[in-house]
Specification:
binds adenosine-5'-triphosphate; 13 helices; alpha/beta; globular; binds magnesium ion; 6 strands
Length: 323
């Protein structure tokens, strides 16, 4: 659907931005996981920006590219903010954005920058860390599903039920801690979880939730660089955790788990975006573009009043004027 076909009557500039967002989003989107190979996705990819070739920044030379893309992101953020306002007013659709990544891939920064223009009342972020005893006493999706966004809202999961086929798969010990009846823990458990996740996301989509999932694909080298920065820069010390360094030893196992996860859970109604994450400015643009494209894919508009509603407004107006 072309942008101009949406009911929102976007300005020409908005429509162009939406079309550019669609193109950029599509470049990194996996809608069908069959045969997906993570190794084919370059974490340092900067797409069409390599040669400054982009419809919205026609001749950005390498030097000015940073500025130009900053402006572009700012524009995207403004558009996103208007779309979110309509989403909220319309109160029909909801949006679920899932972020998964290795440490230091930039999840927090992306969420902060991309959602910076969005009204805090229309957006909620939930971070999922090591599960509590209460959480472990429930089914594996419980702690997430109870926080799914209500209509009109954008819900962000900073980590999610996908940890259940990632960290829990890499460290089998976590599975033991999950209080599952023994006979239910078989070699088929990961496939069962994939199946359950697919069903859940289809269910959500059928109920009006737009699901978009992001894997921030950082390279092992770039992660090392960022860890070193966290160690060397006192202002970043708080972000550093020695456990994160230990986790690097399992890098290949994690990559296998991510690949399998994307193969098994990418779907048309719940696609994965494999976002190159070695360049933060590019990561942010791709994520913003993907959310804009997602919102542009549904018929967003402010609710309009019927005749009776308009009559009520006229009455209220008359009352106010008579005071
Ligand atoms: P940051 O480090 O930027 O604060 P973070 O998301 O890495 O953000 P941490 O508290 O460092 O937060 O880490 C959360 C940890 O909890 C991660 O290592 C993650 O793999 C782990 N975790 C999340 N869900 C589960 C789960 N279901 N079972 C076991 N571990 C989990
Ligand atoms: Mg961490």
């Amino acid at each position: 659907m072309a942008a101009s076909e949406t009911n929102a009557e976007w300005s020409e500039r908005d429509a162009r931005l939406i079309n550019a967002a669609r193109k950029l989003a599509a470049r990194h989107m996996v809608r069908d996981g069959d045969g997906f190979k993570l190794s084919k996705h370059d974490p340092a990819d900067i797409g069409a920006f390599e040669d400054g070739e982009h419809p919205l920044i026609p001749d950005a030379a390498a030097g000015s590219r940073k500025e130009a893309t900053k402006d572009l992101l700012a524009e995207g953020v403004r558009l996103l903010s208007r779309m979110q306002d309509m989403l909220y007013a319309q109160n029909r659709w909801s949006v679920l954005l899932v972020f998964q990544a290795m440490d230091a891939a930039g999840k927090d920064g992306v969420i902060k920058h991309v959602m910076s223009g969005v009204n805090p009342q229309g957006c909620e972020v939930h971070s999922f860390k090591q599960p509590s005893a209460e959480e472990l006493d429930h089914d594996f999706m419980w702690r997430c599903t109870r926080l799914a966004p209500r209509r009109g809202m954008i819900g962000i999961f900073n980590r999610s039920y996908y940890e259940e086929v990632l960290v829990v798969r890499v460290h089998r010990g976590y599975l033991e801690g999950q209080q599952l009846p023994r006979e239910l823990v078989t070699d088929g458990i990961w496939d069962e979880r994939f199946k359950d996740i697919r069903s859940y996301e289809r269910y959500m989509a059928r109920n009006g939730t737009i699901v978009r999932k992001f894997f921030l694909n950082v390279s092992r080298d770039e992660q090392k660089k960022r860890f070193l920065e966290r160690i060397d820069d006192p202002a970043k010390n708080w972000k550093f955790s020695a456990a994160d360094v230990a986790e690097r030893a399992h890098w290949d196992e994690y990559m296998d788990a991510y690949q399998d996860m994307i193969r098994n859970t990418a779907a048309d109604h719940a696609p994965w975006s494999v976002v190159p994450a070695d360049n933060k400015w590019y990561t942010r643009l791709v994520v913003a573009a993907t959310i804009i494209a997602a919102l542009a894919s549904v018929d967003l508009h402010y609710p309009s009043l019927d005749e009776a509603g308009r009559a009520k407004l006229a009455d209220a107006r008359a009352q106010l004027m008579a005071e």
